[in-house]
Every structure is written in structure tokens, then in C-alpha cells.
Amino acid sequence: MPKKTWETEINTCAKCGKCRSVCPVFLETGNESMVARGRISLAEALRDGEIFHTERLRDYLLSCKKCLRCSSICPAGVDYDLIIQTMLDDLAERIGIWLIPRILFRLFLPRRWLFDLLLKAASAFQRLVPLKRHGTMRHLPFMFLKRKWIPALAKKSVLNKYKHREVILPNPSSRKKKIQNYPSAQSSSFFKEERGDYHMRVGFYIGCLINYVYTDIADAVVEVLQNLGVEVVIPSQQVCCGIPASSLGDRTTARKLAEVNKKAFEEAHVDFIVTACATCGRTLKRDYPRILGDDCTMTFTGKLYDISEFIEKYFTYETKPLNTKITYHDPCHLSWGQGITGQPRDILRRTGIFQEMEDPERCCGGGGVFNILHYDLSMKIGEHKARSIEKSGTEAVATGCPGCQLQIEDLLASRGSGIRCIHTIQVLRDAMRTI
Ligand code: SF4
Ligand code: SF4
Question: Ligand 1 site: residues with CB under 6 angstroms?
Fold first, then answer.
């Protein structure tokens, strides 16, 4: 098959405009330059020398959430992600990257100790601001003006917490019981024999939001995997997946971070790798082969699973359902980015009183760079999500992405709602504790 390039993909677009019917940004703005078809026309004009690399072009590119919703319905199968990423990379090369993100990406992200220090300072600063309802607070100066609700930074990051115990052994009472449910387990090369028992050795890729903010999600992943008889490895050398850098076209940093992560997990000699962050999962599965070349597939990205995907594929388990009404929000990077929609629902159906909300796959409006640059627009997109959640009559909304969790908590808190937002794995952990 001929290699895809941004040119082949530009030529594939039939200009049918179907992407306009689903793009969350276009549905709010009605602006043709803020949807896949319009940006592909901009790419064409750029290729033909009709327009140039400018800040205005960057604005249009950064108004894309990279949610991949458009790709999911594109009848021509255009690889829109490849087009926009190529444009962002070229733009950064020709007109540079803004100073503050450049410092953050090049200086802090590859050096975890320095990034830790920066966040420790931020954590000390946030303590000056009084805590608001159930642990959420407003604490970024520029967000003060916008009244954004942000959860508190954790006192200790996950990687620091597990620094001296990178390998966490399975819970002995649960070991063989769970794995033996799998007839293929004993014949698979992924399973190792140890003291007559079979178990998997699984690497856990944490991701920044879970590492620094939602640390309980990591604890839940570890506890559930231990209960399923899995040996969990948390390589301490792992760093940010690189999505903030590649979102601004910083190819150099994105490559550097990808290389560090690949090495960290290769050296850990794990059978599988799991993550509980939909955005990190999408980045590692889809972007790393492009950044590092296909060699990383065998030893790294090919072993990667979202936590719900992993559990539903390899295990059966017992839970006593919780008496909680729960609904589910599909993170774009899990559903459109990785095709995972059924597995989290299967977990929730077994663990709570599950009820679907209206348009569960509709974008919540979150997304790192997009949320910062287009905060009002992201909240406008999220309004539909907040209304669907409230209408469902739920007590809690589960999701599979800490980025969506951040956005949904902000949306619900700004509406004065008492509905909690949690990760699917936290629900499973709680339900496992009841047996
Ligand atoms: S749906 Fe696909 S083919 Fe149609 S305009 Fe959008 S990107 Fe082009
Ligand atoms: S990736 Fe998402 S935000 Fe960007 S054009 Fe496609 S649907 Fe719109």
C-alpha cells in the first residue's frame, strides 16, 4: 500500500461536508475554517502557495480539538489527523513555538524532577486559595477571571509514591483464581510460570493528570490488577506522553519523550502495558508509530491497552454491585481514537445501576491546549454534555479519561450540581471491595 502523506490525504477529501454535521467546534461556531473540510482547504491553499504560515493560520489549527469525530464518519476515509499534524509541525518549524510552552516542553517535560518541582511550587501556591466544595478549587491566575473549577494538585505524585516499589506483586488470595478463567492463559507466552502459578507482568503508564492530580485512579488500577492476580510494574523513568508538545507542533520534544517512554517500558520487560488515560492511550497507540517508526510496535505500542479493554479481554471477576445510579461519558480519544465503547459499559453494568445518558458520545468540550486557548467555546460545547448528565437522573458519571473528568467536574461545579465524576476503574475497585 502506498505510504500516506498529507498530500495524498488532501487529494482524498471529496469536500462533501459530512464532517460539518458532527464536529463539536463547527456545531457551535458555524465557521468553515474551524472544521475538517475548511482546514483541508487551508492545507490545499498552503500547498499551492496561496496562503502562508501565519499566526492566524495557527489559530484555525488550534481551534481543532483533535477529537477524531470527523474521521469516524468521513466517507472518503481521509486521515485528517495526518493533515493537521503535518500543518502544525511545519508551522512550528517556520514561525516557531510560543515562548512559555517552548520552555515548558523543552525544559520541564523531559526532566521529571524539574516538572515535579514546578508542580510542587504550584501546589504550594494553590494552598493560598481557599478550598471550595468537595475538593475542587479555582487556582490558576488566568482562570480566576473565567471562574474555572480545577481540582487540587495531589500532595504526592503517583510516581513518587511508588518510587521505591516499582514492582507490585499480585494479591496472593486472588492470584490463580482469576487467571484460570482463561483457557488460553496457560498456553500463552505472555504468561509466566512462577512457583507453579501463572501470572502476567503488566506495565502501568500513568500520564500527567493521573500522576499529579487524580492519583486515586492510579491506586484503583493497581488494586484491581493486584486482585486479578497481575504483577504491576510502574517504571519510574516514564514521562509525559508528549501530546501537549505535539499539539503545538513541537516535533523535537514529542520524539524525545516518546523515546524515553519506549526505553522505560522495554527495560521493564512487561507482557502488556495499560493506561487509564484515554488521551495518553490514543497518543501511544496512534502517534508513537508515526514518531518512532514501526519498530516500536512489537516492543511497546503493540502491548498497550486501555485499562477497561485489558480487563474485559483477559479476565472474569466477581463484584457485588454498588447501589449507585451511574451513567457513562465516552471520551473522544477512547471511542473515536481507539474504538473502545463497550468495555467500560460492561464493567459499569456489573458494578452499578447503569443508565445511558442522551448522546453519551457527544464531546464534553475538554482538551488540554484547546481548553486553555478557547475556554468559553469549550464550556459552550460542554453545556450539552452537562445537560445530558443531569437529565439522566444519575448520581455519578463515569468516564475513562482524566482530561474529560477535569472538564466535566468544571461543568458540573459551575452549574452547582452535586453529581460526581469518577473513572470507570474506581467504580470497579469499589465494587470489588464489597465482595
Ligand atoms: S467528511 Fe471527509 S471527505 Fe467529506 S469534507 Fe469532511 S474530510 Fe472531506
Ligand atoms: S478532529 Fe474534532 S474538532 Fe477537529 S475537525 Fe474533526 S471533529 Fe472537528
Answer: 13-19, 36-37, 40, 70, 74, 76, 78, 80
CA angle 210–216–219, rounded 5-degree value: 100
Spell out a b/e string for 258-277, using b for 16 or more CB atoms within 10 Å of the CB, else e.
bbbbbebbbebebbbbbbbb
Ligand 1 atom closest to the Cα of residue 76 is 3
- Name the grid cell of 7: 498530500
Report the CATH number of the 325-433 domain: 3.40.50.1860
pLDDT computed for residue 138 by the predictor:
59
Q: Measured in angstroms, how far is the CA atom of residue 168 from the centroid of ligand 2?
A: 40
Tell which CATH classification among 3.90.420.10, 3.90.79.10, 2.60.120.280, 1.10.1060.10 matches the domain 6-95.
1.10.1060.10
Q: pTM for the full model?
A: 0.91
Residue 81 CA to ligand 2 center (angstroms) comes to 9
For the Cβ of 66 lying below 6 angstroms from any atom of ligand 2, the answer is yes
Tell me: pLDDT of 30 over 70. Answer: yes
Q: What is the residue extent of each domain of the chain?
A: 6-95, 158-314, 325-433
Q: Which CATH class is domain 158-314?
A: alpha beta
